[in-house]
Every structure is written in C-alpha cells, then in structure tokens.
Design goal:
The complex is a heterodimer of chains A (about 180) and B (about 250). Chain A is an all-alpha fold and about 180 residues long. Chain A is built from eight helices and no strands. Chain A has two domains: about 90 residues, RNA polymerase sigma factor, region 2, helix turn helix motif (Rna Polymerase Sigma Factor, Chain: A, Orthogonal Bundle); about 80 residues, Arc Repressor Mutant, subunit A, CATH 1.10.10. About 10% of the residues of chain A have low confidence. Chain B has about 250 residues and is an alpha+beta fold. Chain B folds into two domains: about 50 residues, no CATH class; about 180 residues, Sandwich (Immunoglobulin-like). In chain B, strands 1, 2, 3, 4, 5, 6, 7 and 8 form an eight-stranded antiparallel sheet that branches. The longest helix of chain B is centred in the first third of the chain and has 19 residues. The termini of chain B are far apart. Classes of the chains: A mainly alpha (about 180), B alpha+beta (about 250). Chains A and B meet through helix 2, helix 3, helix 5, helix 6 and helix 8 of A and helix 1, helix 3 and helix 4 of B.
Chain lengths: ~180, ~250
C-alpha cells in the first residue's frame, strides 16, 4: 500500500470524493478485518470493529498527519478498537480448548480451515500484547519498524514480544497435536 | 542453551529482516550448533503455520455498511437529492423517483409511457439491507448489485466502476415485475444509454456509477420476484452473468 497514493485518496476524500473513499475502504477493509478477527477470534466482533475503525478514522481525518503512513494510523485505530472490543466481551471468549479438540486420528492431515481454527485458538491463549505483535507480523505482514510505529513501542520490544509469543505458540501448538 | 545473539539472528531470518551482512554469521552458527538448527527449524515452522492460516473473508455487505456510515463533505456538482448522507433516507425516496422520471423522459421508448405517479410512498425509506446481492470483481468492471424490497416496488441497485463502457443487461422477464423507473446518482442526460424492452433493461456503465432500476409489482396477490438475471458485456462479449433471487 503506497502512502503517496493513500495521501492523494485522503485529499480527495476531504473534498467529498466518495470514489476515493470507496478505494480506501476497498484497500483496507480486508486487512483491518483480518487483524481484528485474529485479535478478537470472532467474525461478528471483527466486522463491528472494522466498521468502527473506518468511522473513527474518517471522523478524525483532520487529525491525520500526512507525514506518517496512513496504514500505520488506521492500524493503530484498529488495534485500539479491537482491544476495546475485547475488553467489552472478555467473558464471551469464542474459542476454548474444548472447541478445538484435535481430531482423533493424529495421522489425518488437518485441513486449512481446521488449522486456521487451531492457530486462532492458540492465539487467543496469548496475552494481548503478545497476540497483537503476532497478528501484525504474521497476518498483516508488517515489518518490525512498522509494528513499532503502530504500537508506539521500540523495535527491540517488538522483537522480544515476538520471540516470547512464538515460544508460547510453539508450546500450545505442540499440546494441540500440531507437529 | 542458545546464545542470545544467535536467537536474535534466527528470529530476524524467520521474519525476513536479516541484514545481508548478518547472513554469514547465521550460516556459521547453524552449521556449528545443533541447538541453533533445531531452534531455526521450529521457529520457521511456527511462522509458516501462522502465515499459511487461511485469510478470512469479510462478510458480504460490510464494505457497503462502512461506506453508508461515513459522511464526507459534499462534493461540488453532486445534486442534493443524492448526497451520501441522505442516501437511503426517506427524503431521498420521493425526490429520487421524481428526478428519475423527469430525466428519463428523453428516452424514446414505449415502455416509459407508463411512468406516471409515484412508486414510493412519501416518507418511505429505501432499505439498507438487501434481499439479495452480487459482487462483481473483474478487471473490466467491479462493484456490487443489490435487490431491495420497497413493498410496492423492487429496486435493483448498482454501484459499478469500469474504465470503458460496459453494457449491463437486467432481465426481469421471469420475475413477475414490470419496469417502473430509473434513477442515477449523477442525474440522467441524453448522452446516457438506457433501453427498455419487454422484460429487459440495458444500461451502459462507464466510470463510477450508482444507479437504480425500479420494478413494479403488478401481480395479484403480490409476489416476490422469482429471478432477475444480470449480465455484463464488453464489446459484445459476455464477461459476467449472475442472478438475484429474493429470499423465500
């Protein structure tokens, strides 16, 4: 996603160009939804958060500083809104170990959807700050630098959280029979 | 126990962040240490599992919901009857039909002789939630088509974008409906191509267009349209075909 292109689209949005708005939403709807889904573990909550993220972003468009990347800005809103949503629904966790009991036959290959569910269950067991860096790194494909920019933490902290998160993920995946 | 420096290099390699100058050091460590090789392999595996986890498809209609919820400053040249903020609201319905009907007059077509009166009760909303929808995602044209229920009428709503002219064919011959009107976000001009023939409407889309066809429910008792066929042609060649069906 090119920041120059985003900047041009934002400028057009400020002039009331809904085609530009459509392009921005089209570009970011899927990545924002996927990040929210991986943080929240629930498709309905992820859809709600995605809608709120765009609404907040366009309400606050005047606060966006074009010297910075638009995607960092909107991702930061997405992470904050996902955490807010998570706090609101903390007691309604979607995935549990029981839900994700591994198939009886360990030899049987796990299909992609099943594997995705197991990965999601393992993610949900991570503490939030670990889960967020994993999501941004693996599901949003962002660099250490971009993750640090979005979360406003040093790159060193990004690396150390990723390191710990992966160790925990490894243990959880092994416990779920994913080898 | 793995050296912290080597663990860091391994992680950077897994994340594609290893600098070229660090590669020889990592290669040497992997050659010399079984622990390093095991750790590298484990981290690669965990990373791959996550990267390969299937991407989730946002729910159908989410983009539309988002777009409907955002207000922008009104652009110059956009008629007040179709401002985004007022779209779908009661005030739009009545005015929109009037504009559609007045503007449609230049089209020479006997079907249009029946376009009298109003199709939408004053104060009636155009519903946001569609009965059915189609997503068009082609290099030549993309966007969405919805079927919405207005009780007395049905609306086939299009939001399409194409660089070149694409012929959009709407076949409602099997729907039990009759053509009732047309409305376009940009208003209607004599340059636009709109043809109505029997149970078929032909519109040519170019650029970013938002338009609606109104279908009158002429059956007694009132029925839901059985099927409305949507086809799109580029230079005479069919590039898209789909059908809208109302919910049972």
């Amino acid at each position: 996603m090119s920041n120059d292109r985003d900047r041009a689209l934002i400028l057009r949005c400020k002039r009331g160009d809904r085609k530009a708005l459509g392009e921005l939403v089209k570009n970011y709807e899927r990545p924002i939804y996927n990040a929210a889904y991986r943080i929240l573990g629930n498709p309905d909550d992820a859809a709600d958060v995605t809608q709120i993220v765009f609404l907040r972003a366009f309400e606050r468009l005047d606060q966006y500083n074009p010297e910075y990347k638009f995607f960092s800005w909107i991702y930061r809103i997405a992470i904050n809104e996902s955490i807010n949503q998570r706090n609101r629904t903390r007691n309604q966790q979607s995935f549990t170990d029981e839900d994700i009991a591994v198939q009886d036959d360990p030899e049987k290959e796990l299909d992609a959807d099943r594997m995705s569910e197991i990965i999601q269950a393992s993610l949900m067991e991570l503490q939030e700050d670990y889960r967020v860096v994993v999501v941004l790194r693996h599901f949003s494909d962002l660099s250490y630098k971009d993750i640090g920019g979005i979360l406003q933490i040093p790159e060193k902290t990004v690396k150390s959280r990723l390191y710990s998160a992966r160790q925990l993920m490894k243990t959880q995946l092994n416990a779920k029979g994913v080898s | 126990m793995l050296d912290e420096r080597i663990a860091e290099l391994i992680q950077a390699d897994v994340d594609g962040e290893l600098e070229p100058g660090q590669r020889p050091e990592l290669t040497q460590a992997l050659e010399q240490s079984e622990d390093a090789r095991a750790f590298h392999s484990e981290m690669m595996r965990v990373a791959r599992l996550m990267t390969d986890a299937s991407e989730q498809e946002p729910p159908w209609g989410l983009r539309r919901k988002i777009l409907n919820s955002i207000e922008l400053p009104v652009a110059e040249g956009v008629g007040s009857w179709f401002r985004p903020a007022s779209y779908g609201l009661a005030v739009a319905a009545g005015v929109l039909l009037a504009v559609g009907l007045v503007n449609i007059a230049p089209v020479n077509n006997s079907e249009l002789g029946n376009l009298v009166g109003t199709m939408v009760k004053k104060g009636q909303n155009i519903p946001r939630e569609p009965e059915a929808g189609l997503a068009v995602d082609l290099p030549q044209i993309n966007g969405q088509v919805w079927l919405k229920n207005l009780d007395e009428a049905w609306v086939v709503e299009f939001e399409l974008e194409s660089d070149t002219p694409v012929e959009v064919m709407v076949d409602f011959s099997h729907s039990g409906m009759k053509f009732g009107g047309y409305a376009d976000q940009a208003g209607f001009s004599g340059d636009q191509e709109l043809q109505v023939s029997g149970g078929e409407v032909r519109v040519v889309n170019q650029g970013n267009r938002h338009f609606m066809l109104f279908l009158r429910n002429v059956s007694e008792p009132q029925i839901k349209p059985q099927e409305i066929g949507i086809a799109m042609n580029l230079r005479g060649e069919k590039i898209y075909q789909g059908a809208l069906q109302s919910r049972e």
